[in-house]
Amino acid sequence: MTDALHYLDATDLAARLRRRDLSAREVVRAHLDRIEQVNPAVNAVVTLDPEGALAEAARADERLAHGEGDIPPLHGLPIAFKDTHLTRGMRTTYGSPLFRNHVPDQDELLVDRLRQAGAIRLGKTNVPEFAAGSHTFNPVFGTTRNPYDTTRSAGGSSGGAAAALATGLLPLADGSDMGGSLRNPASFCNVVGLRPTPGRVPAYPAVDLWDTLAVPGPMGRTVADTALALSAMAGPDPRCPTSLETPGDAFRAPLDRDLRGLRLAWAPDLGGHAPADPEVLAVLEAQLPVFTGLGCHLDLACPDLTGADETFRTLRAHAFDLALGALLDSAGQALKPSLAANIAQGRRLTTDDLHAATAARSRLHLSTVDFFSRYDLLLAPVSQVAPFDAEQEYPEAVAGRPTESYLDWMRSCYLISVLGVPALSVPAGFTPGGLPVGIQLIGPPRADLAVLQAGHAFEGATRHGRRHPTPPTA
């Protein structure tokens, strides 16, 4: 039984744990064994505390055996937290040599909520340096490899989380998303990642508590597992002024829904703003009949994204300067050049630049709300490219056009980030070379549940996410 535990759905594992068909110690031990066998080849989990996890699992089993209180929704499920999320008493490096031995004295809100929901802390998952970029490598732990082809990128910045899910190292994962950091790695690793509506999962502590460009969120191997993780993360917090009032348990409702009559828009290049490689579009266009077969109406349409690129890049540079500007001054030589350049870009911004970006984001949001008065969901590529060479920082070209920076291939995600809407990456098939491709389901503001329901229906009709990688070896 334990040999197969690593690929059981988290929802199934949770149910078996509640029924005491399995113990938390069995589940944690099975995942620790899997990490020992497979992690050296993918480098997804970078800090590990086996003894602490087994002790925590034993306490969870004892509480359940003695009937101590209600059974939390994630009881006994192991998790390793993204290495940018503060974990009390456990090293949190941000992928930077400057924080190689940094051990926080607090859990950040996301971590605390998942642990309060019963998740067992195993360790940390790999990230790019300060989560900058959508390819996971850093000078502390090295590169995370794609489970379907270890010469390729796993995406990022939640790349360690995605690779860990795909290889059965973890049943659930957490992450964060500014320009695609939950969605891109999910697409590259054939798992599910949700960028929630800003405020759905509050972030604390944070340099800017009003920030809605970067959002925490969940990942899973299935949409239902992702919703389960979201149910533990979501809900208001008085310290977070943008947090939404809907309680997290609203996302533990069944996701089954009849999609007949839904009005869907398909935007293969986001209105000309994000051209994708032909091999990616070929995979996605072959999936469109699935939606019409489910009874949806499908049009070729896109919201007006004029100015979204400049808006995202301005706000992102400002956020990096706000968070990391002091490090550029004190230890700039220790930062990777692309990150240092982005912080410096933020420092050069003028008040006119920030005023223009703020006004443009407001206009883009209202235009998007108008678009969703005509359509229920927008479909688009998650990534404009298939997983690329892991030795490159970013692809050299996209759709035949040379890239000039490490952001250029991420437009299909980051143009959506500035709109203030939920977006879900769901497995959608494979290239002829066997590389995963995800489809992005985008909904109106606060329609996270509707997006999850549509993704669940598509997933059930296709089952692309059930194609696991051949276990890689180091």
TrEMBL record:
Sequence ranges assigned to domain Amidase in this UniProt record: 26-452
InterPro entries found in the cross-reference section: Amidase, Amidase_CS, Amidase_dom, AS_sf
Organism domain of life: Bacteria
Pfam families assigned: Amidase (PF01425)
One example GO MF annotation: catalytic activity
NCBIfam families reported for this sequence: PRK07486.1 (NF005686)
Protein name: Amidase
UniProt lineage: Bacteria, Bacillati, Actinomycetota, Actinomycetes, Kitasatosporales
